[in-house]
């Protein structure tokens, strides 16, 4: 199924996506999944991110997969989020599904 074929909920996230807000983010994601089969995370372009945000999102992706739900980013990772992905090595040898999720890019073959 595609995102357009399901009920979708946009989850607007705070500009601080750090360990201090991890529980708030987790709660918002779970509330989104309670309301819809798919959620779209609206990450502010000027967001202050750390590794805990990546962990929450990766956990949410696993949850979505196990529950036959979907999760996506409204926009490709940029700014602080992109910097954390790069520093953490998440973009090194990235698989196609992760590339599409984080960067909205499909690998040309």
Automatic annotation (TrEMBL):
It comes from the Bacteria. This is STAS domain-containing protein. It comes from Allorhizobium terrae.
